[in-house]
Amino acid sequence: MSGPRVRALRPSELTADQAAVYASIAGGPRASGPKLFELTDPDGRLNGPFNAMLLSPTVGDALQALGAAVRYGTSLSDRVREMAILAVATSWDSEFERYAHEAVGRAAGLSEEEIVALRDLPALTPTDVREAAALDVVRALLERSDLDDAEWDAANAVLGQDEIFELTALVGYYATLALLMRTHRVPAPPASGAGGGAGGIGGSGAE
Fold it and tell me: Where does the Carboxymuconolactone decarboxylase-like domain lie (predicted)?
């Protein structure tokens, strides 16, 4: 990966519209809870996909709001959600998604063995029926962007239509972030332990 293509903006450099999006990200639900990763750098500049969202405040605000809904407003269990996000990270080889969500996944109860297995999608076979069904859906969406009739029926019998919809939206959202970060050459922050770094705003919810 080459260097970042977009300069990270300090809070003092933001327009009013950009500042409103920044406040929704840095002061919203993502910034609450345990500090599991760095949401900003020591100068207050947004990490990950969020700085790029400031380039177009209208689109960026809609995108971050979708992310908050997918992250905090679904019926998916924490474990299922983080398994799905890490599966997207593997499929897209997304450094930042892996950086943020392996930390969140541990807090959600994923073991180190499960996290390692999620770096190689076929390696993880959950013993929980609902988790296995959810991961089957995610794998199919990542591999073929679709569920065939048999896959739909199998997932619907265990998860129901609501959770299939939520998983589909989640995969689409995190794939969008991975594409955004790939195009803009966004790296993960330097390793700094589990907590938010000095001067940074930690976050439990990631993207």
Answer: 57-139
